[in-house]
Amino acid sequence: MTVHNFSAGPSILPKEAIEESIEGLRNFKNTGLSVVEISHRSPQWEETMVEMENLICELYGVPSDYAVIFLGGGASMQFTQIPQNLLPEGGMAAYLKTGTWASNATKEAKFWGKVHVVASSEDKNFNYIPKGYEIPSDAAYFHITTNNTIFGTEMHHIPDSPVPIIADMSSDVFSRPIDIQKYGLIYAGAQKNMGPAGVTLLIIKKDWLGKTGRNIPTMLDYRTHIDKESMYNTPPVFPIYLSYLTLKWLNKQGGVSGIQKLNQQKAALLYNEIDRNPLFAGTTAVEDRSLMNVTFIANNKEAEDRFDKFSEERGCNGLKGHRSVGGFRASLYNALPLSSVEYLVSVMQEFEKTF
Ligand SMILES: *Cc1c(COP(=O)(O)O)cnc(C)c1O
Questions:
Q1: Which domain, by its residues, includes 57?
Q2: 181 and 47, same structural domain?
């Protein structure tokens, strides 16, 4: 039976990239060595790092005043490293509280300075994106989470901000074009839409650093990794490699604008079925629906319990919703083919007939 992977993260990657990474594990660039055995100072690896950075700059149109770096520690590490590097002593940062990850980011920033929450959607269990808030012009930065993986909302409009925007794009990175100039920093843990767990991508405006008045230990200072092009110490070689192969695949799909069209098509297909099928309902405000994580519930307890089993028996993997929302969550990341969404819709229709 074919397994369709709707897992929220770690999640589906292009088969082609996985196959190529297996070849790299066996024999990397005809060196006779595995990619995980070769020195990270070897010309073959250094070339891969340069190609990876160039590919990212090409995909997102990153100008030369930004740096691309790869760090360990996951996106969660950035919740503390960001204010450590960018929130000046005695300063204040603004945060938009749109879900669990945004709340965690807010919590960690408080270790480094004052935090002003401009708006929150916690009153409705984060089922919408707040609008019409004001961003204080004396904030060091404005932090947003562009896609809320757990609750299934996504920011379809990025506000104009009087201060640099920092965006956690862990679960919608490379899913659509962005205007990088709107941001001072974007970051993403790889394991949702870019690669396996173990590496975090940062794209950061270089002239913004070094202004906190704080001493930062070497490994935690972004400037260390910018100066050494992410090779100050041994980088997470394999996660970077498979992310690189995934982005090469993405480039062949027409880059971020090509994949955006497919992502729109996939999400529309599933939301249409959720709205049509009397057994299911969406959980979020319609205008804020995520194209990456589609959250929905069954209309009664019996249907919920039965669909869980019904869909799993038919090869739909990872559909169970996060415990804080319940119900179901279908993640439709870049690598998930349209045929998997068509299949899920057919399973939902088949399920309807059994009632
Ligand atoms: C998964 C996720 C995180 C946490 O990522 P880790 O790499 O596990 O620390 C942070 N933000 C968002 C939006 C996520 O989806």
A1: 15-252
A2: yes
